[in-house]
Automatic annotation (TrEMBL):
Cofactor: FAD
Record flagged with keyword DNA-binding: no
Keyword Oxidoreductase listed: yes
Family per similarity comment: Belongs to the acyl-CoA dehydrogenase family.
GO cellular component terms attached to this protein's record: cytoplasm
Protein keywords: FAD, Flavoprotein, Oxidoreductase
InterPro entries: Acyl-CoA_dehydrogenase, Acyl-CoA_Oxase/DH_mid-dom, Acyl-CoA_Oxase/DH_mid-dom_sf, AcylCo_DH-like_C, AcylCo_DH/oxidase_C, AcylCoA_DH/ox_N, AcylCoA_DH/ox_N_sf, AcylCoA_DH/oxidase_NM_dom_sf
Domain Acyl-CoA dehydrogenase/oxidase N-terminal positions: 13-123
One GO term (biological process): fatty acid beta-oxidation using acyl-CoA dehydrogenase
Name recorded for this polypeptide: Acyl-CoA dehydrogenase fadE12
GO molecular function annotation: acyl-CoA dehydrogenase activity; flavin adenine dinucleotide binding
Acyl-CoA oxidase/dehydrogenase middle domain sequence ranges: 128-210
């Protein structure tokens, strides 16, 4: 690795800075008020999604020959971070272009790439991602969704829970298992399941979140799929899964960092002007220091996210795995703390509907739980980075 390429993870190239500024300008035209108003009206942020798609932001990471921008997860994370910093994060960026787009671009057949990537890139098609199951939870070894061959077709059955955005997605990429013909063991396999496929049912879960993307329970009951619903090759399921999970973690970090910045900006604006005694409340170190600390922690987690994106985009899946886990952990903790401190800075106004920060309280906790909980990341680092024994 040359010094120049290494430096580029610290100092953003002019192209990336320009992308950041352009996305920030789009985000400002929508913002937190739009996001909360739309969500409370029970609507989706489709206008923003479509505009971002037309401008080429949704597919910055996808190959140019399929309508993408030819960049990587580094670019896509900039898009999500800046939209989030403006108050209008698009959660489905974590799923549609980052997981599904990446997996199909890397492992899909030519036909699957042609069918899905141009739409995912321009925003006209969306794909949800379903791995979590009610019984398996954090233990993905217990996944019980199974695809069985029936002639050339697949019959897929199972249940999923907490799957985001299924109602607005054309299809869901379902993580299941198939039987290995040689060993008889079950191994991971990814199936593209269009939303209107008979036997595929989705029901919303009531969540305490101000988010336009809803979470769903999925019921797959002998869902008949054609042979080409299986992504790529039957033997590459595990590789495919990891190819999708690292971008998911990096993008969840971007989601958190954007939200943390949004909350912090609002708190700082408020603390600069609100006077209770003789000076602005931001002059009191009891308020200023936690805000300064939140800024430092957000900045540090962004650095880790940039490292993870750099490793991933350079093809180092293994190195990216550790960095992506650490980045997601750090960003989720930093955002939860920043939002909490921002709410506190506004006093009573921190919980008014008008200031919009209360809505971020629950949203900022999501990244501590999903896509992998903070404890499972600590387990990963304890075992893989530190070499400590496993307790479970
Ligand atoms: C808003 C939201 C959106 C989501 N979107 C999606 C989506 O689009 N697609 C998808 O597939 N999933 C999605 N999820 C699901 C999410 O990935 C899971 O909730 C998460 O992986 C945790 O699984 P669980 O809820 O079953 O918790 P559990 O596995 O039951 O864990 C419960 C608690 O126990 C702890 N725990 C479990 N095992 C251990 C251990 N060995 N050591 C220490 N602690 C442990 C966990 O850290 C956690 O705190 C979403 C979840 C939320 C909240």
């Amino acid at each position: 690795m040359t010094a120049a390429t290494f430096d580029s993870t610290f100092v953003e190239s002019e192209e990336r800075q320009a992308l950041r500024q352009a996305v920030a300008a789009l985000g400002r035209r929508y913002g937190l008020e739009y996001f909360i108003r739309t969500t409370r009206a029970g609507e989706h942020t489709h206008e923003l999604w479509q505009e971002a798609g037309k401008l080429g932001y949704l597919g910055v990471n996808l190959p140019e020959e399929y309508g993408g921008g030819g960049g990587g997860i580094a670019e896509l994370s900039i898009v999500l971070e800046e939209l989030g910093a403006a108050g209008s994060p698009l959660l489905m960026l974590v799923v549609s272009p980052a997981i599904c787009g990446t997996v199909i671009a890397r492992f899909g057949t030519d036909e699957q790439r042609r069918r899905w990537l141009p739409g995912i890139a321009d925003g006209s098609a969306r794909m949800a991602f379903g791995i979590t199951e009610p019984e398996a939870g954090s233990n993905s070894h217990r996944l019980a969704t199974v695809g069985r061959r029936d002639g050339t077709d697949w019959l897929v059955s199972g249940r999923k829970v907490f799957i985001s955005g299924v109602d607005a997605a054309d299809a869901t990429l379902i993580v299941g298992r198939t039987e290995d013909a040689r060993t008889g063991r079950l191994k991971p396999a990814l199936f593209i399941v269009p939303r209107d496929t008979p036997g595929f049912e989705y029901r919303p879960i009531e969540m305490e979140l101000t988010s336009p993307e809803k979470q769903f329970q999925l019921f797959l009951d002998d869902v008949r799929l054609p042979a080409d619903a299986l992504v790529g090759d039957e033997d590459a399921g595990l590789l495919q899964l990891f190819a999708g999970l690292n971008p998911e973690r990096i993008m969840t970090a971007a989601f958190s960092i954007g939200m943390g910045r949004c909350a912090l900006d609002r708190a700082v604006d408020y603390a600069r002007t609100r006077e209770v005694w003789k000076t602005a409340i931001g002059a009191h170190q009891g308020l200023a220091h936690p805000l300064a600390q939140a800024r430092i922690e957000i900045e540090l987690s962004r650095l880790m996210m940039q490292k993870a994106a750099f490793l991933y985009d350079s093809g180092d899946d293994l190195g990216a795995g550790e960095a992506a886990n650490m980045a997601k952990f750090a960003a989720a903790e930093a955002a939860a703390k920043a939002v909490d401190q921002a709410v506190h800075t506004l006093g009573g106004n921190g919980l008014t509907t008008e200031y919009g920060l209360g809505a971020l309280l629950t949203a900022s906790r999501v990244a501590r739980i999903a896509p992998v909980s903070r404890e499972m990341i600590l387990n990963f680092v304890a075992q893989h980075t530190l070499g400590l024994p496993k307790s479970y």
